[in-house]
Amino acid sequence: MTANSKKRILVQIDPDAHPSVFDSVVAIDSGVEQLLTHGAVSEDDVTGLVHGCIFTRSIDDLRSTALFFGGSNVDRTEALVEKAKSAFFGPMRVSLMSDPNGCNTTAAAAVLSAGKHVSWDGLTVTILAATGPVGIRIAQILAKEADASNETVTIRICSRKLQRAEEVCRRIAVAGADGVTLEPLETAEAKDALPAVDGSDVVFAAGAAGIELLPEGWLEKAPKVVVDVNAVPPAGIHGVEVMDKAETRGETICYGAIGVGGLKMKIHRKCIESLFESNDSVLEVHQIHAIGKTIVG
């Protein structure tokens, strides 16, 4: 730190009673010099916290303060993020990152891991538990990438309830998804997932910990790549090991949660580092994925 520079301060905001230790450790390992953690934060608290960031340093030094939003409840965290954005004005702002429950960094790492082995144009992708935080974001990344590249891709949005799958399809379509075919599917039980992955090139399992989403027999469908982000036994995809990293089973390349996790951690750390390059970065799912692309190359 030079004589005229300020310490890099990260303000960690979390709606949970106890701010995530995981996020705190990653912040420190990413070069944060002073970490201020705030738990049980409500929307009413956010403006005051933001003002504490933007009114304490000169405009030139605001790049040395940043906000990180975590938490186990994605909807609550996203509401806090929107409240923070509304508290900024003119040059009075600091950079922020949103990664509640690791959903944005995990989704980015999952897509980038699979993308090492396939070109998405013309593929059919099945996302199991696609209405959860990670599943939705995987679909959003794929749709945006296809739209930006003028590619065609079919995305099967699977959920235990068809209505929820349809809602996610509408949400993605409204955001813009030219060239993307969205297919809502009901997979109320694990056995329903086998026909859902029939003809799929890539399969993502993005369900809650310890729930098998795709049972034995899927190898006969011969997808090119499968990615399971569940780290707690049983695996989300039968037969995929948590440590799998481009492990080949039959004709399929397999990734488990820790196999994806190494890239997820690199993305998380690089995002934290990038917050201090300016005072106006907003890192959410698509910006985080873009940073991940610079790591993968």
UniProtKB/TrEMBL annotation:
Pfam families: Mpt_N. One of its GO terms (molecular function) is oxidoreductase activity. Residues 21-101 form the Methylene-tetrahydromethanopterin dehydrogenase N-terminal domain. SUPFAM superfamilies: Aminoacid dehydrogenase-like, N-terminal domain, NAD(P)-binding Rossmann-fold domains. Keywords: Oxidoreductase. The keyword Transport does not apply. This is Bifunctional protein MdtA. It comes from Mariniblastus fucicola.
